[in-house]
UniProtKB/TrEMBL annotation, chains A, B:
<dbReference type="InterPro" id="IPR016061">
    <property type="entry name" value="Pro-tRNA_ligase_II_C"/>
</dbReference>
<dbReference type="GO" id="GO:0005737">
    <property type="term" value="C:cytoplasm"/>
</dbReference>
<keyword id="KW-0963">Cytoplasm</keyword>
<keyword id="KW-0547">Nucleotide-binding</keyword>
<keyword id="KW-0648">Protein biosynthesis</keyword>
<dbReference type="InterPro" id="IPR004154">
    <property type="entry name" value="Anticodon-bd"/>
</dbReference>
<dbReference type="InterPro" id="IPR036621">
    <property type="entry name" value="Anticodon-bd_dom_sf"/>
</dbReference>
<dbReference type="GO" id="GO:0004827">
    <property type="term" value="F:proline-tRNA ligase activity"/>
</dbReference>
<comment type="function">
    <text>Catalyzes the attachment of proline to tRNA(Pro) in a two-step reaction: proline is first activated by ATP to form Pro-AMP and then transferred to the acceptor end of tRNA(Pro).</text>
</comment>
<comment type="similarity">
    <text>Belongs to the class-II aminoacyl-tRNA synthetase family. ProS type 3 subfamily.</text>
</comment>
<dbReference type="InterPro" id="IPR006195">
    <property type="entry name" value="aa-tRNA-synth_II"/>
</dbReference>
<comment type="subunit">
    <text>Homodimer.</text>
</comment>
<dbReference type="InterPro" id="IPR045864">
    <property type="entry name" value="aa-tRNA-synth_II/BPL/LPL"/>
</dbReference>
<dbReference type="InterPro" id="IPR017449">
    <property type="entry name" value="Pro-tRNA_synth_II"/>
</dbReference>
<dbReference type="InterPro" id="IPR004499">
    <property type="entry name" value="Pro-tRNA-ligase_IIa_arc-type"/>
</dbReference>
<dbReference type="Pfam" id="PF09180">
    <property type="entry name" value="ProRS-C_1"/>
</dbReference>
<dbReference type="GO" id="GO:0005524">
    <property type="term" value="F:ATP binding"/>
</dbReference>
Amino acid sequence: MAKDFTSRSEDYSQWYNELVNKADLAEHSAVRGCMVIKPYGYAIWEKMQAELDRKFKATGHQNAYFPLFIPKSYLSKEADHVEGFAKECAVVTHYRLKNAEDGSGVIVDPDAKLEEELIIRPTSETIIWNTYKGWIQSYRDLPLLINQWANVVRWEMRTRLFLRTAEFLWQEGHTAHSTKEEAIAETEQMLDVYAEFAEKFMAMPVIKGVKTANERFAGALETYCIEALMQDGKALQAGTSHFLGQNFAKAFDVKFANKEGKQEYVWATSWGVSTRLMGALIMTHSDDEGLVLPPKLAPIQVVIVPIYKGEEQLALISEHANKIKSELETKGISVKYDDRDTHKPGFKFAEYEFKGVPVRIAMGPRDIENGTVEVARRDTKEKETLQQKDIANKIDHLLTNIQENLYQKAIDFREENTFKADSWVEFEEHLSKGGFISAHWDGTPETEDKIKELTKATIRCIPLNNKLEEGKCVLTGSPSKQRVIFAKAY
Amino acid sequence: MAKDFTSRSEDYSQWYNELVNKADLAEHSAVRGCMVIKPYGYAIWEKMQAELDRKFKATGHQNAYFPLFIPKSYLSKEADHVEGFAKECAVVTHYRLKNAEDGSGVIVDPDAKLEEELIIRPTSETIIWNTYKGWIQSYRDLPLLINQWANVVRWEMRTRLFLRTAEFLWQEGHTAHSTKEEAIAETEQMLDVYAEFAEKFMAMPVIKGVKTANERFAGALETYCIEALMQDGKALQAGTSHFLGQNFAKAFDVKFANKEGKQEYVWATSWGVSTRLMGALIMTHSDDEGLVLPPKLAPIQVVIVPIYKGEEQLALISEHANKIKSELETKGISVKYDDRDTHKPGFKFAEYEFKGVPVRIAMGPRDIENGTVEVARRDTKEKETLQQKDIANKIDHLLTNIQENLYQKAIDFREENTFKADSWVEFEEHLSKGGFISAHWDGTPETEDKIKELTKATIRCIPLNNKLEEGKCVLTGSPSKQRVIFAKAY
Ligand SMILES: [Zn+2]
Ligand SMILES: [Zn+2]
């Protein structure tokens, strides 16, 4: 399977595209910019969803569902929001088709034109805050802690599977609070939830920070984000959490009576992660042999492959294999026993390797004799022969070990690819190699724009709890009080 | 809470609308025909989803995701399908907005007109079979057993929450098979999955049957369905499973090489249930005091309400309540302990009654003294005082008992409201009272249409394994070999 597969050093972008296709994660659909998420890719997304959903509920949030359509006029109600989102949108203008009179097929019925066009949601702040107006009267109705799992559409001309598609899947949390402090605490809490998910489940280290004004979400007072570093030295924004102030409450006139009976505008947050995380996962761990998955997100954690000649051997091996399978399953490990007789073991090995199954167990007649199994781990490609006795505990530890190893490798990679730049020469030099660059910036949007223009690098974030340090802006030499993180980004 | 609440006998339809609103299940949105599913309603839908998803996976299906958009021309590829679905659709014609020159807001950019209009999926057979063409080459690729959880849009002018909305949530299974027999077996298997879910989880008895040609899904050779009877005597189609033959394979040219290497068209099924099930659930069990939920679908199965004066009493009660709560949770029962000091016990009782929480436990100072609790069940409104000892087992049994009781009540109701009609006079007489009517029909679409025209009753289904019996059509007197089920329907 790994033949005809471009290596990362040859062409990283080509490697990514081939991997997504050959590992059966996703493919382009016939509709420009829209992807089909294939069953194996969707199974990974489902594991992400399940854990995120658990974390949202553990922090007091409930799920709900709001309309796909947003009346066009709603987008204009919040001044910054309209600038950011009323651009590349899918616009519904009609609600009926009819048969063409010449029998050539169906055509749009011109009589069925909507009075007001509907936009397919690019994000749901407007429709949700319009709804919240009816739900919030008093401080007793607050906080309102709601999340939605949904599809959204942002028309994109240049798309890449998972990373940038016209339609994508995501969750969007939208909360309402009685005080500014509580809303900011929520924004920060959800950033922590995302960071913990990225690090503990995706085994992907992230930097927590805030965006500069230039890079803020349209309508937010502050955008918090987590930023990860991909293998090719480019940054990827993996999640954002926005403190929206009272902007949407004012735009949709959402007030509450406080304890003193006085009317106040409600404070808002929103936060989201999307199927883009699939791209981040791939570009953090995978290698020239295909996908590498952290055990906590692997749909199949362990595959057992029998090596046999004839049905008698298979029956004997299957007996032991099924026993091991059920021992592993008792520990909550997901196992596939692949006894297909249509494919040879070598083919199966290559297939599961390419699909990133963390642990492969092979069992042949000699293993049955000796009471052993051959265990191969996907991350390091190491193989060892283990006694079947107590195998479930051994595999359980191995999976934990793989999870930790992937995280540590990613941490090491990021450390090796994070540089301090104290002059423009250094900045450009490091940038040409890729990675995060920690550098002083004079704090002006003009300088930020200029650097982007010159190098395509953007400020990924101002890290939270950033160490204050006197310095000079790498571009202008003007004084600066802290370093920020620059990188080229997805 | 139940004051200002219309009773079922006063106005069933009004009762339904008020219930959906007051129990916080859903509400109309600002977008015509689209609903907002509120957190409590969505939590019930999530329980439905979880169990259905488990059943789909247990029968070998995997989830995937296909585009929201369908190119207009795709709808025309299958002749019957276009007749059925290329009608009331949401049509995307443009992909960009821009600022109006007069500063009045945003307008659709006329330069951003799509070459081919995109339809928001009303169902996904066309886009999915267009995709399957790339996935199926050989018999080894079959069967392909895929399900999608998604939103769909069918433009509706007269909408009712959950029962008929322009946008709704559903799952749609789409499977591909190498033989006709296997596809039919799949269609029947999924009907059984739906029926079991309806009966065991929703506590809603259903009749399994097939639709007449008139009522078939557009593009299907056979539509199987489950039909339930609502409290007002109207039928509700709760799920459908379609045998699609080779129609979509031919429309999208999807062939496979069989074991002999010969090219054949693939056989197809599709099957779905939607948020409409929420309406069915409500209209099967609920009463004049609000929602009634079967324990297996109740987001909160047990609520514990403390009855106290002062913080000292509360502290003592809370200690016991939390102990009971954790005992119940150990058994997998979902429990809410409502110790809010902002509301009186009576208010809480009314609220949980209205929201259909199956079991309410109340605990006062005397209960602490006596080691008792007061247990009230929502279905029969019975109350009893129980010893706290072994309370988790008692509640567990009670929940099972409530689940069974609701099912039995619904079975009894259906039996009392199913009538045989052997003449037109009898038919009209029974129909005026509502319910299922079992009657002979001459098998022609003309008679079926005529009966619908005269009475608004439709043939809900020809029951599976129907007893054959000589008879005469209730309308025409022509010979008939079996009875079919008529009813007015949602
Ligand atoms: Zn950042
Ligand atoms: Zn039926």
